[in-house]
């Protein structure tokens, strides 16, 4: 029996090309701008008084002075592993769904359609990769301390962390922060919606478009998505790391954390670390999309020429 068309779309070479290109692009981009992610994590998780009114550059210099240059790259390997897995899952799911939708409705694309597909891909990604992000958040913040009964000295890599947290905390620990992560599927969905819309409007020929064009479009798309969803990203990081606020129960939920931050720091507290996050995420996303487009174009050209 011949394989159905939707299955052909899901398991097509093109979906694999997009997934591998997205994964490689994300690893290259994060490797380049990783110290900015370290600053973002510190600002989100440390007490505000510790690094009050400091710019991103000032905090980078302070961290190097206090803890050494290596602290800027603490936990990078599990982050890159998690990012590679996460982007592979997201890009594969998004482009497979896009291919199925294109088969069902023709070649027409729309911003609303891209937002829907991006959201579905985000939900799949959250359930598949949240345990990886829980481990790398804790590894990155070794020494900061949290109230979860978990000793990060017991593991030094992603696999060991997954096994240890699974044994000591079970599924609840591995999928900590899942609820804000599910709400945050709107972030990459908005990002992809804006990216695809700008690309359709501004790039007439993807084969001849410059790398700068994809870099700029990726930067704009990620900046919009980040600003719109940042408070939830802040709560997500705190839940993954483990609650450190002694005035809140260990198993605090999203609403409790939001209200606590508003009470202690005001509305500005919900956007603490936004400068570093924008620098890191916008530059990383822009470089990722630029690399992704170039890799995907190169591999697709090889596949096409190989079929001739």
Describe the structure.
It is a single chain. The chain has 308 residues and is mainly alpha-helical. It has eleven helices and no strands. The protein has helices at residues 5-10, 13-45, 56-67, 76-105, 111-140, 158-174, 178-183, 186-202, 211-241, 254-265, 274-307. The longest helix is centred in the C-terminal third of the chain and has 34 residues, at 274-307. The model has no long low-confidence stretch (mean pLDDT 80).
Summed up:
With 308 residues, the chain is an all-alpha fold. It has helices at residues 5-10, 13-45, 56-67, 76-105, 111-140, 158-174, 178-183, 186-202, 211-241, 254-265, 274-307.
Essential attributes:
Mitochondrial carrier fold, mainly alpha, globular, 308 residues
Please provide the count of β strands: 0
> What is the makeup of the main sheet?
none
Structural class: mainly alpha
User: Unreliable segments (pLDDT under 50, ≥5 consecutive)?
Assistant: none
Q: Topology of this protein?
A:
Layout: H1 5-10, H2 13-45, H3 56-67, H4 76-105, H5 111-140, H6 158-174, H7 178-183, H8 186-202, H9 211-241, H10 254-265, H11 274-307
């Amino acid at each position: 029996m011949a394989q159905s068309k939707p299955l052909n779309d899901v398991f097509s070479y093109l979906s694999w090309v997009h997934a591998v290109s997205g994964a490689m692009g994300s690893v290259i981009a994060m490797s380049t701008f990783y110290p900015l992610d370290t600053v973002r994590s510190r600002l989100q998780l440390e007490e505000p008084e510790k690094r009050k009114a400091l710019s991103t550059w000032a905090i980078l210099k302070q961290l190097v002075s206090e803890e050494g240059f290596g602290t800027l790259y603490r936990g990078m390997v599990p982050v890159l592993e998690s990012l590679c897995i996460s982007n592979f899952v997201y890009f594969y799911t998004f482009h497979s769904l896009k291919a199925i939708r294109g088969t069902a409705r023709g070649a027409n694309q729309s911003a609303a359609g891209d937002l829907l597909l991006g959201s579905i891909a985000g939900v799949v990604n959250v359930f598949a990769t949240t345990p990886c992000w829980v481990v790398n958040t804790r590894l990155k913040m070794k020494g900061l301390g949290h109230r979860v009964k978990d000793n990060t000295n017991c593991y030094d890599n992603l696999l060991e962390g997954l096994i240890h947290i699974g044994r000591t905390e079970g599924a609840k620990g591995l999928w900590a922060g899942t609820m804000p992560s599910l709400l945050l599927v709107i972030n990459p969905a908005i990002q992809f919606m804006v990216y695809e819309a700008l690309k359709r409007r501004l790039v007439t020929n993807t084969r001849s478009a410059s790398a700068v064009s994809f870099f700029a479009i990726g930067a704009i798309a990620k900046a919009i998505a980040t600003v719109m969803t940042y408070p939830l990203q802040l709560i997500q990081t705190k839940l993954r790391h483990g609650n450190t606020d002694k005035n809140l129960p260990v198993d605090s939920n999203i609403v409790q954390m939001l209200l606590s931050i508003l009470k202690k720091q005001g509305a500005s507290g919900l956007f603490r670390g936004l400068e570093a996050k924008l620098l890191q995420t916008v530059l990383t996303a822009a470089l990722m999309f630029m690399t992704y487009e170039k890799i995907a174009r190169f591999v697709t050209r090889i596949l096409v020429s190989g079929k001739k």
